[in-house]
Design brief:
GO biological process, one term: heme A biosynthetic process
Organism: Occallatibacter riparius
Helix content: over 70%
Subcellular location: Membrane
InterPro entries: COX15/CtaA_fam, COX15/CtaA_HemeA_synthase
Strand content: under 5%
Distance between the termini: 16 Å
Radius of gyration: 21 Å
Strand order of the largest sheet: 1-2
Keywords: Cell membrane, Disulfide bond, Heme biosynthesis, Iron, Membrane, Metal-binding, Oxidoreductase, Transmembrane, Transmembrane helix
């Protein structure tokens, strides 16, 4: 490749500031999601009553309870996340060339953020918070978690595609093994959804000991949410098969980049999730461990999305490795 071609290509790349901002927004969104997990784990979802977007009908809270502070903080940070997503969208369109794949990812980021806000509002208005055992809560939570994962995926793709030096427009990429990769991602999403339902069961029906928890799982008198807690580790086990396929394929060195380091990171994060999952069961899911498990899941999901993008969206022309 000539120096002239390199300079022209470099001129088409997004600014370093835009790339850093995209990764910052991703980290911020993960922090907001973790705080949302704290809201659920502590039963603080009803801290603002059934009012939305106001908290207990007002903006300024006078002598608020702890659950009110937790819920109000989540709403405030979620509001900032929306403006961050819009800012990323505007900056991405202004700072990239026509046909840049990050533009589509940024659009979907805003769409999923809006859906997240609507789902959050309905969660409050329908009373599916705190200790609510409504039959609507579990499927609603599954829908909410699915949208959250799609939102994180769109954000991660935005940051990744903005950071690419080749293969970042529709005309310069080719699809490689998309069916298998998409299947792997869907299965991992199922792990996340079943994990959120298991966490809800731990919150609504806490056990005093490991033996009592196991008895709950197999008791005919327990609610289906408790008796289905076994689905999470089971789905996680079978998801490993798909992940192994993806990791083996990604570990092959190509003319464009070397994925071995990222594959190793995904493998380490996966192992850490299994360890945290076992501790979650043994220690009866304390709040801090639930948040640590959620953090590991979010980071693993982001790393997996990047790895999948590098495998599936391969640059059409050979170049130097990234």
């Amino acid at each position: 490749m000539s120096s002239a071609a390199i300079s022209v290509d470099a001129a088409r790349l997004p600014s370093p500031a835009l790339r850093r901002f995209a990764w910052f927004v991703l980290v911020y969104f993960i922090a907001v999601i973790l705080w949302g997990g704290l809201v659920r784990a502590t039963g603080s979802g009803a801290g603002c009553g059934d009012h939305w977007p106001l908290c207990n009908g007002t903006v300024v809270q006078h002598s608020p309870r702890l659950d009110t502070m937790i819920e109000f903080t989540h709403r405030f940070t979620s509001g900032i996340s929306f403006f961050s997503a819009v800012g990323l969208l505007v900056w991405t369109f202004a700072g990239t060339v026509k046909g840049h794949l990050a533009r589509a990812a940024a659009v979907w980021t805003v769409v999923f953020t809006l859906v997240e806000a609507v789902l959050g509002a309905l969660l409050v208005k329908l009373g599916l918070t705190a200790q609510s055992q409504s039959p609507l809560r579990a499927p609603y939570l599954a829908l909410h978690l699915t949208n959250t994962l799609l939102l994180l995926a769109a954000l991660t793709l935005s940051a990744h595609l903005l950071s690419r030096r080749q293969g970042y427009t529709r005309a310069t990429v080719r699809l490689v093994a998309p069916i298998g990769a998409v299947a792997a991602v869907i299965v991992v999403m199922m792990v996340g959804v079943t994990g959120s339902l298991a966490a809800l069961g731990d919150t609504l029906f806490p056990a005093r000991s490991l033996g009592a928890a196991l008895a709950q799982d197999f008791s005919a008198t327990s609610g289906w949410l408790v008796r289905w807690r076994w689905t999470h580790p089971t789905v996680a086990f079978f998801a490993s098969v798909f992940l192994i396929w993806l990791l083996v394929r990604a570990s092959r060195r190509t003319a464009h980049w070397d994925n071995r380091g990222l594959s190793a990171l995904v493998l380490v994060l996966l192992a850490a999730q299994y360890v945290l999952g076992v501790l979650d069961v043994v220690l009866l899911a304390p709040t801090w461990l639930q948040i640590a498990h959620l953090l590991g899941a979010d980071v693993l999901w982001a790393a997996l999305v990047v790895l999948t993008a590098r495998v599936v969206l391969e640059p059409a022309k050979a170049g130097s490795r990234e």
